[in-house]
Specification:
Rossmann fold; 16 helices; alpha/beta; single chain; 6-stranded mixed β-sheet; 15% strand; 437 residues
Length: 437
Amino acid sequence: MSPAQLQCIEPDCNARFETSSRLYTCARCGGLLDVVYDLESILAPQLVDEWDRRFGSFQAIDRSGVWRFRELLPEAAPDEIVSMAEGNTPILDAPSCARYAGMNRLAFKHLGFNPTGSFKDLGMTTGVTQARRLGATRVACASTGNTSASMAAYAARAGMKAFVFIPSGQIALGKLAQALDYGATVLQLDGDFDAAMRLVREVTSDSDLYLLNSVNPFRLEGQKTIAFELLQQRRWRTPDRIVAPGGNLGNSSAIAKGLKELLEAGAIPRMPRLTIVQAEGANPLYRMWTEQADRLTPLEHASTLATAIKIGAPVSWRKAQRGLEWSGGDVEQVGESEIADAKAMIGRDGIGCEPASAVTLAGIKKMVEAGRIDKDEDVVAILTGHALKDPDYTINYHRGELAFTDSAGTTRLLPAAFASPMIRVAPDRDAILAALE
């Protein structure tokens, strides 16, 4: 593992701190922090060869799709690492989705195959490992669902107590059930995710609780290995574009950082274009990007049924902006009906995903129709969570009962263009045969 330091990302600051410091943001200016490495000392061919050798290893540390890439991770002794063989998630071809989007081909990197069913496990293995290195015994996060499930699981593995701050009534029950099952204490708060995030940051600054939201730079170090594993699975062939959902923007930021490090180390010849897709009702980055603003203006109230990205004040917007600039990337927004239909179409490829994941396909379709993505591009889209994370959404869609209330308080039923039929049939042979016809 490489000696690493924490560095402020603000260009007029660039302050550095030791990784043994219990910091989430810059102690000098309050900016976001990166974990940085001496990339000039890394020889890419030998590094890639070693990573590929570990791909077939039976060592526990190598079976992790995160710690396999430990030369570009913060240092940790083997007995400090908290792992559940996370990563190792597939890239799946999706021919039906490609046709739906107007693409010649399309593939999904499905992070819902992780231990707790979402990409958050990739960041929690590094985040909880850092908590253990610092001697923490209690950890906390604000969550719309996946973060709480993952943190609770990894805290349980580490023998730590987990505290989850959730916006009351705004979390998918499948995700809440996981956090409870893993032994977390759940605090339901009035307000939205952004209010819960503000409160958990205040509480962790004044207590021994260790914060494990994506403002913690060690979280993003695990999530950047999405880029490492994706490239390894493609035998280090770089796609033209990687498309990711945008909520709190930690994941897209992490992917961009991982790609930039591979480029600077000489492991890949170029960066793919990063494309971030947001829901129309939770689109602060899209607004900033299209308005060419220097700073992000938070939304007072985010609104989308894709609860994992229902965030109006994303913590990692500056890092996401940086990643878009590094890669010549782009941002798109999609509506609730577009998300719902895209989710159903992903199911038609036998893949399935949580609602927030489906913004990637919806965004690709919209950008192809607008001529912003060429149908011949080599595109990998990120699916962030498992289909069973929010089963009520899926059932309601296929029943034609999926209702959305926008920020103005107007409720409407979403059309279900790809609903699968559920037919009530009498318990009679002839009636069943008639229904089958």
